[in-house]
Design brief:
The protein has 442 residues and is mainly alpha-helical. Helices cover 75% and strands 0% of the residues. Helix 9 runs antiparallel to helix 21, helix 17 packs across helix 19 and helix 19 packs antiparallel against helix 20.
């Protein structure tokens, strides 16, 4: 079994390296991710009984259920992603984000960086870091046309979105997991993790502002022409139902207990209906760019397939016990130092998806009635912070990073060279601020 597990790890590592070297190999990362996924699971099937000894005579049935469960979990994320991307495209195509664009508009490059950073940080806590990243990139495209500058702003969006999602119970998948399972509470994670999350965003933005000089050309700030009151009303309505609907998704989940993608589909169906009503009396030529049937073709399916391959490959690592074993080794090597364990997990979350890492920690440790492992204890709050913020260190370390990578065609190498060290500095600064709050101020 040891040889088989090693082979699975080798396939995953080789696939990851090929994804990291996409700009050199000139092979789309989605293709590599799919090959990596199938390769890992094929090796798993060489001797599935060794991993599923408890299945007995029902081995094939157990394997089928196992794959369906993992695919179902992955599909929830993918449908949420596709729905959110489509909703944002609808709002953007109908001019709904002009309101946000006008709030941010300035010719000073550094002022724009700070304004976008704080708006992204706040929105990611209200919506989620994935949806917020999509929204802000759409707004960014309307404000900055120069490629090199836009890459810096896009990197900032990733950082601010992940930092903002880390202190909110609904801002990131990992915080949602910890919140639903009762490891953290809404009040606890907001009051204790807000300052570290803010620090982890402010420090990188302070450094990154020196990468930008001068002012934007007037031509880069696209001016909006005169529009009729009816059109303005339609844009406002689409914006309210689009962004308001995204805010309603976590509320819908709490009211119905249905998974988030069902709320997204509800909002998409409602927004689709509204736009059809608005444009039913308009010629097809005038509304082609605004109708949902046309906007669906703009969804980046390569990003969706990349996400599918990555999540399913990581699921294979989870099934063979690699992630759990890694967590146990970390705990032993650190001597129980929670800052060290969660800090390393945060770094690993930039390489391996943070969802199975956090899930492994939740299964490895149990809630204690009091102390660092109690509800809202140091370990669980640090885990929420580190798993969320740590994903910003590499561009493929978070859902927000993957989406921005696909939308803006940012290469892994560019981000690694220019941004990774900046994120790491902010990451450590945030952890230090948490230590000060817990050890000195408290």
């Amino acid at each position: 079994m040891g040889t088989l597990i090693t082979a699975i790890i080798v396939v995953f590592v080789l696939g990851y390296l090929c994804i990291a070297l996409e700009s050199v190999l000139k092979v789309n990362k989605a293709a590599i991710a799919l090959l990596m996924c199938v390769g890992c699971w094929t090796l798993f099937m060489v001797n599935p009984g060794g991993f599923l000894a408890e299945a007995g005579d029902n081995l094939m049935s157990t394997i089928s259920e196992l794959l369906k469960n993992h695919l179902g979990d992955t599909a929830e994320t993918l449908f949420f992603l596709m729905g959110a991307m489509t909703i944002v495209e609808i709002v953007d195509a109908n001019g709904g984000f002009n309101f946000v664009r006008d709030m941010l508009k300035t010719r000073n490059k550094r002022k724009l960086l700070w304004r976008m950073a704080f708006m992204t940080f706040i929105l990611s806590a209200i919506l989620d870091n994935l949806t917020t990243s999509i929204v802000m990139i759409m707004v960014l495209r309307k404000l900055v046309q120069e490629r090199n500058d836009r890459l810096i702003y896009a990197a900032m969006v990733i950082i601010a979105a992940n930092s903002g999602g880390a202190f909110s119970p609904i801002g990131d998948v990992t915080t949602i997991m910890l919140w639903i399972k009762g490891f953290i509470t809404t009040g606890g994670v907001i009051t204790e993790v807000f300052v570290p999350s803010l620090v982890s965003m402010v420090v990188p933005v302070f450094i990154m502002q020196y990468m930008l000089k001068g002012k934007l050309d007037k031509s880069q700030n696209i001016q909006e022409g005169e529009i009729s009151p009816a059109v303005r009303h339609q844009r406002r309505t689409i914006f309210i139902f689009g962004v308001g609907g995204l805010i309603f998704v976590p509320i819908f989940r709490s009211l119905t207990s249905l998974p988030p993608f069902m709320g997204i589909l509800l909002v998409l169906g409602l927004l689709w209906t509204i736009t059809e009503i608005f444009h039913r009396k308009t010629s097809e030529e005038d509304t082609m760019g605004k109708r949902v049937t046309d906007l669906l073709t703009r969804i980046d399916m390569s990003t969706i397939l990349f996400f599918l391959g990555i999540l399913m490959a990581v699921a294979c690592l989870e099934e063979v016990g690699v992630l759990t074993a890694l967590g146990q080794q970390l705990d032993q090597a650190s001597g129980g130092n929670h800052y060290l364990v969660t800090g390393v997990i945060g770094v690993l979350s930039s390489i391996v998806d943070n969802v199975p890492l956090v899930a492994g920690c939740m299964g490895m440790y149990e809630l204690a009635p009091m102390g660092d492992m109690a509800v809202d204890g140091i370990f669980w709050q640090l885990l929420a912070y580190c798993a969320g913020v740590g994903g910003s260190m590499l561009i493929i370390g978070s859902a927000a990073g993957v989406v921005v990578m696909g939308l803006e065609k940012i290469t892994f190498g560019w981000y690694l060279k220019r941004i990774t060290w900046i994120v790491f500095v902010g990451y450590l600064a945030g952890m230090f601020s948490y230590w000060v709050m817990r050890s000195i101020i408290a």
